[in-house]
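Exercise 7. Predict the structure of BTB domain-containing protein from Panagrellus redivivus.
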Amino acid sequence: MSVLDIDVDKFMTFFKAQRDAIRMFIELTCEINQQEFVEKLNTLFSDKHFKRVNCEALKDKKRIIVLFAGETYPAYIYYVENN
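Solution. The predicted structure, encoded as tokens:
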């Protein structure tokens, strides 16, 4: 879980500097504490910079996709609100 302990502003600087077609995947391969995981996601991908969606309809947006190992469909998809 500590992999998600990232400075939000530094992450945004890095992420926004990437090309427009970037899709970043986070795949979890271990069992997690769901509440702790959601809290970390909410901190890192806060409403200040990101919007959470339930599908990949926004193909023209920079986005981050969070998957659980062995799953076909993303558990969480975020796109940059102010691109």
